[in-house]
Amino acid sequence: MSKDMILILDLGGSQCMSAARKVRGEGVYCEILPSHVPVEALRSKKPRGLILVGAPREDASGEPALSREVFHLGVPVLCVGYAARRMNAILGGECRDTALSLQTAEVTFEPCALFEGLTRCERYVSRMDNIRPFPGGRVLATTPEGVAAAFGDEERQIYGMQFSAEQNDPDGLTILSNFCRGICGCEPWWNAQTYLDEELIRIQQAVGEEGSALMAISGGVDSTVCAALIHRAIGDRLHCLFVDTGLMRKGEPERVQAMFEAMRMPVEIVDARSRFLSALSSVTEGRDKRRIIDEVFVEVFEQEAARFPQADCLVQGTIYPDVIGSFGAPRIGVGVPAHGRFRVVLEPTRTLFKDEVRLMGELMGIPGEIIDRQPFPGPGLAVRCMGEVTEEKLAALRLADAIFREEIASAGLEKRLGQYFAVLMNAGVQKEYTVALRCVSAADAVSASAYRLPYDLLERVMARITSEVPSVSRVVYDITSKPPASIEWE
Ligand code: XMP
After folding, report:
1. Atom of ligand 1 nearest to the CA of 376
2. Which of 137, 152, 183 is the last residue of a domain?
3. What's the whole-model pTM score?
4. Ligand 1: which residue has its CA nearest to atom 17?
5. Would 145 be classed as within a structural domain?
6. Which residues surround ligand 1 with Cβ inside 6 Å?
7. Structure confidence by residue, pLDDT tens digits, 211-246
8. Quick one: pLDDT at residue 2?
9. DSSP tally for the chain: helices H, then strands E
10. Whether 164 and 51 share a structural domain
11. CATH number for the domain including 148?
């Protein structure tokens, strides 16, 4: 089987993720690397082509590093938006003033492999500059104003386009497919089933006949799918630990244990509640809470790992967004250091996007209720409990959160919502707390909007929380979208 792949070089922002998802959606495997990666590292991956996408943030100092040699690797290169202008300048073309910005423009295409099958069409342009293509390049698409919307050297197979292919463009998929499959000649081989089959063999080879593996699971989608993969490959030679930090939602440790038992994967619960709570005493800042929780987690895990001296492989549920750094904070359990005693670190979901992890879970027959679980931050309720974390505050928060979840479930809304939870705000002079409810629809790392929950449901939740949780006397609903707010409060 062919192992063709495309490398996406990231020049900043989040567009590379959308581009990668589209390319993989076409069955072409791709990976994202930062644009400053040494050229030898690019070459060693033996890509069939490169896509350069993204732009530095407005407040960034200087331009992202990009070596001229990238254009001399002997494989086709497609540069999108800012990357196209950078490429043109590097190769000796001329970029003058900005011609169009934040508007719609009609683009007409010259006959060429990149735009095969496309007709003249209006598209949204965030920015197009007046440019003169680099020596050897010619204009491949124009606007009525005569702006070079795309240009390239078809002999050297270097292309630049000043409109996006990876976001809302109506022909985005066709252009990416023309590039990856037509110009680069990539065979589509990537799909969840192929990945699963190959990963199982890779795991078996890495662990060997005698090896065994240790993993800290959180009960979230990623670590569950990851554990199921390893379990399928090596069976009971996988040992799963669930560290109860005391910062979980109501009933969570029991639920996780039952979930794993139903999948015939035994999991051992490590009760570390008092350790976490005492480490968090008098800590009030979210950042400090996260750091301390991470540190204690590693200590607890290392101590527990000592009980499994025969385990020579460490499993980590890293997923691709963790690797390319699209999340603000590293997730708990993901950062367990691979200290000397482990011969091998297994990260079977390292190159997968979240929806691909879910797909893998479905293929392995993991029940929908697990696959569709909402994300829950590793530091758990600690970052939903404003100010110091105490047993008393956690108990109130856990109960309020459970009431909110129960009411959402009985309204049949669970599947429509991305993430919903309660936050406990600091007590005022009355020593009574305010609970804030947060509910966002289909969230990703970059954006989310508050869901318009029915008012009567909110009233029911308010009535129940204020009567069933004695220390809470006020309930508010957070209607802020992301941005400007984040999903979590701390
Ligand atoms: P924010 O609050 O940054 O959250 O809009 C984006 C997503 O990440 C989750 N989140 C975390 N997950 N450790 C985690 O494992 C954390 O420290 C953390 N902080 C936020 C959040 O729940 C949302 O899904």
Report:
1. 22
2. 183
3. 0.81
4. 329
5. yes
6. 290, 327-329, 331-332, 375, 377-379, 419, 443, 445, 482, 486-488
7. 999 999 999 999 999 999 999 999 999 999 999 999
8. 52
9. 14, 18
10. yes
11. 3.40.50.880
